[in-house]
Design a protein that fits this description.
The complex is a heterodimer.
Chain A: E1 5-14, E2 17-27, E3 32-36, H1 43-50, E4 58-63, E5 66-67, H2 71-77, E6 79-81, H3 94-99, H4 107-112, H5 115-135, H6 150-162, E7 168-172, H7 180-195, E8 199-203, H8 207-213, E9 216-221, E10 224-229, H9 231-235, H10 238-245
Parallel strand pairs in A: 3-8, 3-9, 6-7, 7-8
Antiparallel strand pairs in A: 1-2, 1-4, 4-5, 9-10
Chain B: H1 10-25, H2 27-30, H3 39-61, H4 69-86, H5 91-113, H6 118-137, H7 159-187, H8 190-200, H9 202-207, H10 212-238, H11 250-263, H12 268-292, H13 297-314, H14 319-337
Helix pairs in contact in B: 1-7, 3-7, 3-10, 3-11, 3-12, 4-5, 4-6, 4-10, 5-10, 11-12, 12-13
The chains are: A alpha/beta, B mainly alpha.
Amino acid sequence: MKDFLSVDSVTRQFGGLRAVDDVTFSIDEGSLSAIIGPNGAGKTTMFNLVAGTIQPSSGQIFFDGSRVRGTIGASRQGIARTFQNVRLFREMTVLENVLVGMGGTGFFGASLRLPGYVRADRLRMKKAQYLLEDVGLDTLTSSRAGDIPFGQQRLLEIARALAINPKLLLLDEPAAGLNRTETTALAGLIRRIRDKGITVVLVEHDMHLVMNLVERVIVLDGGKKIAEGTPAEVRANPAVCEAYLGAPKC
Amino acid sequence: MKKFPQPMSYARLYRGPLVLAIMVAALPLLMRGQFEYLLPLAQLAGVYAIIVVGLTLLMGFTGQVSLGHAAFYGLGAYASAIAVSQFHLPMWLGLVLSIASGGLLAFITGFWILRLKGHYLALATLCIGIITHEIINSLSFAEGTAEIYGMPQMDPFGLLSRGGDLAGVYLVWFFAIIAVTWAVHLTESPAGRALKAVHGDEDAAESLGISAFGVKLKVFVASGILAAFAGFLYAFVCSGGSLTTEPLELKVSVTLVTMVVIGGMGSVWGGIAGVLVMLGLREAINTLGANVGIDTARYEELAFGLILVLIMIFSRDGLLPGIRRSFGRVTRLIGDRQ
């Protein structure tokens, strides 16, 4: 059986730097995993590779039976993502941000605006409203996205990613800049998303969040995979402690 | 029952175009007697309105600057004028050729330059304008110049020969209002949201499955077609039968961008307001100068520059949003008094 997401000896080189160096791992459907590692470990590069934003210098990435090619291709395959430094459409409303990913963007239908077209849009708005309810932003639908507090912008970005009906959701440091309460709420949200059957992979610095939330951890250091396993296994791994603290014991 | 957000209703959607149509229909009340000489200006306003609609979608909504839209406008005018006056083709074929040439030029150039961003794109579009101007300028028709004289004028069902300039105004604005309505349809739809998303963040838009390049190209071609169509109307309604390369001049591109910016790029109505303000101002300055006895042609640019600076200082997002804000302030003031 083919894996849901398989990263097969992928290397990505930026000039002389091997940001990701011969990394292999696979993610099961419906799982909740994290990629961790110290700064400069190649986590975000790995993420951009899976999301199709950059291409591997060598190696292959397969998702759901076909190769990942390009950002648009990846999103059509059902890979959604958020960004490390929130990238919303700041000038648009909260609702519009979610609606962008829901399709129907052809010019022809829009030009005619027949009743059927408007009905389809009404349906999208209903769905967007439900998505915003899920993340707790349903009272802010008509606010300008750039105006809402940072913590809620992160949630909105997740809602926007969910709008494309993804099979795989990639969260790039979703807890960065959030306080304890917000992080706890975020953990709950991520669990709910997984319970809907969406596979979730996150890159995260917040160890507390990672260790309590995910089932599987992949540890990168210097572009290489140094460990993989359950949070408990990884925590007990001397190589991981070495990478994080410079000492073989934590 | 639970309330959900709704798409804009047809009633609200068509309110703007309807008001505009009523304003145009009421023009004869304003432009009669000694003011009848303003009718050709009203025709030109309609022509500009059509171009500005496309340019607002491109610049205001999608965030792509074009300093070369005179190229599409002029090409549209020339393609149809050459077809009709030199090859004696029927006028509807001239129209088809005009639209096709504008769309094709936009597609070919857009395909190469729309990957550029910001200043680089502005520079590239500037070049399109200049190159197109040079090429058409080098053609020779009347006495070795690029000017075309004695073109037939448009006269559908004999309306224009009977109705005169006013009929021409109605004809041009009929199409302008269709263009505006189309643009309003577009902006209040998923397609319009895609434009704004590409403006906001191209990478984020692509992560949601929207091809930023594809969207930009579509809008660029649409705006090119609108400008070319406006060129056709200019050649066969406004030009009086003689066409020079004036529509292709850089000045026209700059004027068009200015109209979009001073009116307010956030909505199609801003562009329309920009057209009316710019053309109205020019006429006012000239009339004033003629009455006082000053040759205003020399000061026209100066006055424009000054007004532009003032608008940018006091209402940076354009005239229309500024007016809306002032209205809000006034109504609040009145509300507070009571």
